[in-house]
Amino acid sequence: MWLLFVKRPRTYQEYERICRAYGLTMANIRFKEAWAMAHWLKREGLYEIDPESTF
After folding, report:
1. Helix (H), strand (E), coil (C) string for 22-50
2. Per residue in 1-55, pLDDT tens?
3. CA distance 8 to 11
4. Which member of 3, 11, 41, 51 lies 3.0 to 4.6 Å from 47 by CB, making a disulfide possible if both were Cys?
5. Residue 4, CB half-sphere, CA atoms under 13 Å: how many?
6. How far is Cα 16 from Cα 53, in angstroms, rounded to an integer?
7. Alpha-carbon distances of 40 from 21, 24, 33, 51, rounded to whole Å
8. Nearby residues of 40 by Cβ (< 8 Å), 6 or more positions away
9. Burial level of 35, CB count in 10 A (0-12/13-18/19+)?
10. Minimal CA–CA distance to 54: which of 37, 26, 41, 35?
């Protein structure tokens, strides 16, 4: 999840690409669980997600 705060990707696809580039090999479901934090932060007004972003 630290990549959310450091790199601040705006789409799930970008987040997954960055995770893979850093060598994270966890299952896609774990990426989606972490991306849920971005959605929570967005609801709190603390994060931006591109409206076109999809899982």
Report:
1. CCCCCCHHHHHHHHHHHHHHHHCCCCCCC
2. 889 999 999 999 999 999 999 998 878 888 888 899 999 999 999 999 999 888 7
3. 9
4. 41
5. 18
6. 12
7. 24, 22, 11, 15
8. none
9. buried
10. 35
Domain boundaries, the chain: 2-43
**Are 11 and 48 spatial neighbours (Cβ–Cβ below 8 Å)?**
no
Residue recorded with tokens 């591109």: 50
| Tokens coding 1 | 């999840």
Q: What's the whole-model pTM score?
A: 0.83
The DSSP secondary-structure symbol of 7 reads T
